[in-house]
Amino acid sequence: MGRAFPEAQMVLPTLIGVSNTPMALADDKGNTLVVDAISNHWAERLGRAACVQMGCQVSCADTVLRGDQLADGLVPATLTLAEDLGRAVRLARAAHADPVAAATSVLGGVKLFAGKVVDVERRTTGGFARGKALLAGAGSFELSFQNEHLLARRDGGIVATTPDLICVLDTDTGEPVTTEAMRYGLRVTVIGVPCDPRWTSPAGLELAGPRYFGYDCDYRPLPLA
User: Fold this and answer.
1) Which of 59, 107, 45 minimizes the C-alpha distance to 81?
2) Mean pLDDT of 96-111
3) Are 191 and 110 within 8 A, CB to CB?
4) Residue 131 pairs with which residues in a beta bridge?
5) Which helix (H) or strand (E) holds 131?
6) How far apart are CA 10 and CA 213, in angstroms?
7) How far is residue 113's CA from residue 67's CA, in Å, rounded to a whole number?
8) Residue 225 above 70 pLDDT?
9) Which residues pair with residue 148 across a beta bridge?
């Protein structure tokens, strides 16, 4: 994927016709389930319903690929990128430099906003954590999320949308702040990171663009740094 998405069908293998199923699910109580669905969207619906009944947390194995499908169905070097990112943040802290700037540089991203979290509205519906977070700084900034941050508005105007990455980092440490960890008083910096270009194809936007999530807007490329 090259990023996180909240629904099972939102993976690059879907774009090349690879099925999510058979999908094996297991919970911490020992319950197991194998889903065999007619489409990846149905795999998400059935798997999500099972996950809710199993306590909203399951281990899952799915989306089997052949070797000749890997190049088209996966994003290369993501583990290397994660290692490079962690190293850059660690070294920046050790040198008393800006860890957020280090992370932004490694990811090829752009700073969108820095400020304080002043309000968080969060609810769990249908197995998802949905809501909004409001930040204050040099202006106002609003994040809309469904497990992951999907839309960002600055002073009312849209500045970033899914499928690009909207990442919230602790301003002092560079640590990621997930939607579940967002709380009043945190001082954070929001950066935008370009997604894998396959996500901005017509098929990719249909699968994981802002309109799929119910936002009344089209994909907006990130502003230049």
Assistant:
1) 107
2) 97
3) yes
4) 122, 145
5) strand 128-137
6) 12
7) 41
8) no
9) 146
